[in-house]
Write a structure and sequence with these properties.
This protein is of the alpha/beta class and 425 residues long. It has helices at 6-10, 14-28, 30-36, 68-73, 76-91, 94-99, 106-123, 155-169, 218-231, 237-247, 253-264, 276-279, 307-323, 349-353, 367-376, and strands at 40-43, 56-58, 63-66, 140-142, 145-147, 181-182, 202-203, 267-274, 286-290, 293-300, 327-334, 338-344, 382-387, 402-406, 420-423. The chain has a 6-stranded mixed sheet with strand order 12-11-10-13-14-15.
């Protein structure tokens, strides 16, 4: 399609602008265009889903409802970003994933979803409308929240990171958004819904996660969209990873560990160093002070553990050190006894890289790790044990929340109910 002047573009109807945006994305962003062609985009004047908030709303059924004035208020590039934002939530099934989080706060979960969505769209070259949860340089600061390294985290990981903080602070900061949430089935007048007159409970803010259950196989649609975009030679590496997590779901021990860490970090407040966010408003507020969290990482160095397993675990320790500056890691290597001890703190990545893992060859007895923790490391908040699980009975009392990280072909037969178990894939 040809280039339009601003006047010519403004003369188009809202429906024509949406059609134009979808066609343009077909040339430039084939992945998103493919997804958009699998949803229904409808003028809300015929349905009344939006109520008093005249913006845009997406339901997980694949229906998007828009207000004409809102669409007409957007510059052309921002409209493309808004449409991609809506279909992202739908295709990646954020409603279904929200329901899988026990006792989750809907508004906070939507904020976390928006962080992931908008972060990826910005990396993919989209221009986003004002009023949303907009990260910068893979980081979000606002609403009293701060999240770093968004690209490395799922929606659920970010939610786990923030939930305790929000609860302690008494809720979220005030915000406005460019779109709407609907928490049950909208009143579909054309017969594609259930005909329920209830327009749905609305949740204030950006995001757009409706609660209508989708009949479409979005996993297959995502797979087809990825294949189509790959044919066109246009799909980002991070998007490929995200699609892979949806199409081939597996328990990530990194996410489990992240959950443990964020749950256990004690938080307090201090007036010694005022909050940067309060300076501009002229109000002297305390800043958040996070105390050191002590983690014990116990690496099985018996003969059945490979160098590849060592390398992978060391890589994850580096990720912990990078992500949590206030975490102190006590690394123990063990077989039938503790072979070596290391300590890393304040993001000491270089020293972690230089660890030389060498094991004994006399057998495997994990009790030595828990005895060391009980006798000498009582302040340990989380224990992470990397092993293949081939050891004898666990007789030592386990007093610390423990995450067992098993190698691909390891066994949990002896571990039973002595902590959470995940497996490296």
């Amino acid at each position: 399609m040809g280039v339009l002047t601003e006047t010519e573009y403004n003369e188009l109807s809202a429906k024509e602008k949406i059609t134009r945006a979808k066609i343009q994305l077909g040339y430039e962003k084939p992945f998103w265009a493919y997804l958009l062609n699998n949803i229904k985009i409808k003028a809300d004047k015929d349905y009344g889903v939006l109520g008093n908030m005249k913006t845009i709303c997406a339901c997980s059924s694949g229906d998007v409802y828009y207000d004409d004035d809102f669409i007409n208020s957007l510059p052309e590039l921002e409209l493309r970003g808004v449409l991609a934002h809506e279909v992202f939530h739908i295709a990646f099934e954020h409603v279904k994933r929200f329901k899988s989080v026990k006792d989750a706060d809907a508004e906070l979960f939507n904020i976390c979803a928006d962080m992931v969505v908008n972060n990826e769209l910005l990396k993919d070259g989209f221009k986003l409308a004002d009023g949303g949860v907009i990260p910068r340089n893979d980081k979000f600061e606002g609403l009293g929240l701060e999240v770093e390294n968004i690209s490395d985290k799922s929606v659920e990981m970010i939610y786990s990171e923030l939930a305790k903080h929000v609860k302690k602070c008494g809720g979220l900061g005030k915000r406005n958004g460019f779109d709407e949430h609907v928490n049950n089935k909208p009143n579909n007048k054309d017969g594609d819904g259930n005909g329920d007159d209830d327009k749905g409970q609305k949740i204030k803010g950006s995001g757009n996660i409706g609660n209508t259950e989708s009949q479409k196989d979005w996993k297959q649609t995502l797979s087809d969209a990825y294949a189509y975009a790959k044919q066109k030679g246009n799909v980002s590496g991070n998007l490929k990873r995200m699609i892979g997590e949806i199409l081939n779901p597996q328990i990530s021990w990194k996410q489990k560990l992240y959950k443990y860490i964020t749950k256990e970090i004690p938080t307090d407040y201090t007036y010694i160093r005022p909050s940067k966010k309060s300076i501009a408003s002229g109000v002297y507020l305390p800043s958040t002070l996070k105390e050191n969290l002590e983690i014990v990482a116990g690496i099985d160095v018996s003969g059945s553990i490979s160098q590849k397993d060592y390398d992978e675990f060391i890589g994850e320790l580096i990720g912990i050190a990078r992500g949590f500056q206030n975490v102190k890691i006590k690394l123990l290597t063990w077989d039938v006894k503790i072979q070596s001890e290391y300590e890393f703190k304040n993001g000491d990545i270089e020293n972690i890289k230089n660890v030389d893992l060498k094991g004994g060859w006399g057998g495997t007895d994990v009790n030595c790790v828990f005895k060391k923790i009980n006798d000498d490391l009582p302040s340990t908040k989380v224990a992470v044990i990397l092993t293949d699980g081939y050891f004898g009975r666990i007789s030592e009392e386990i007093k610390t929340p423990t995450l067992w990280v098993l190698t691909q072909h390891g066994t949990d037969a002896v571990i039973e109910n002595k902590g959470e178990v995940v497996r490296i894939k």
